[in-house]
């Protein structure tokens, strides 16, 4: 099954990890990339501006009911869960926190697994809680590919370790290996 979408979750240390991963994606990367980073609820989202300057792909804050566009990086807005609907549009929700987080990685991963099935790659990066573990398991169960930042290279290993424990099919990789793996998947 060919790659149709990428979802990425990060928490503590995530900006640094994403700063290594996202700028490496080629300008012609042909699938949408959706990102959840645990950010404080009442802060302006500086992530979009930061990554727009670093990345070769367009970067934007996700909007409710927005259709996914290939080759675009979408960040979840502060204090909203980011979901993928089955018709491959984005949705925002202010439902209860999950794993003490809104946006929560599990919410994005589980809904994207339903929408994209085996065409999805889920990536869990550095972080200090277990958010993303259940979602990555859902990606695997839907036939998708699960990649996890090698806990030994993560600023905080808790989230990658939890993801690897929850999803036995997940592969632990260094950030540059994840980026090369994504590029190889879109070429194949």
UniProtKB/TrEMBL annotation:
It catalyses: [protein]-L-glutamate 5-O-methyl ester + H2O = L-glutamyl-[protein] + methanol + H(+). Its EC number is 3.1.1.61. One of its GO terms (molecular function) is protein-glutamate methylesterase activity. GO terms for cellular component: cytoplasm. InterPro entries: CheB_C, Sig_transdc_resp-reg_Me-estase. It comes from the Bacteria. The active site is at residues 11, 38, 131. This is protein-glutamate methylesterase. It comes from Croceicoccus marinus.
């Amino acid at each position: 099954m060919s790659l149709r979408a990428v979802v990425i979750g990060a928490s503590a240390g995530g900006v640094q990890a994403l700063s290594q991963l996202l700028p490496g994606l080629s300008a012609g990367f042909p699938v949408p990339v959706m990102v959840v980073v645990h950010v404080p609820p009442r802060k302006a989202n500086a992530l979009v501006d930061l990554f727009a300057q670093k990345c070769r792909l367009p970067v934007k804050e996700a909007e409710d009911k927005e259709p996914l566009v290939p080759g675009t990086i979408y960040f979840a807005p502060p204090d909203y869960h980011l979901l993928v609907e089955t018709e491959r549009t984005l949705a925002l929700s202010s439902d209860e926190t999950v794993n003490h987080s809104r946006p929560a990685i599990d919410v994005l991963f589980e809904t994207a697994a339903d929408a994209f099935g085996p065409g999805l790659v889920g990536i869990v990066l550095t972080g200090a809680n277990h958010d993303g573990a259940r979602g990555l398991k859902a990606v695997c169960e839907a036939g998708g590919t699960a990649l996890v930042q090698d806990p030994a290279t993560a600023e905080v290993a808790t989230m990658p370790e939890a993801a690897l424990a929850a999803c036995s099919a997940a592969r632990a990789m260094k950030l540059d290996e994840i980026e090369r793996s994504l590029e190889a998947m879109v070429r194949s």
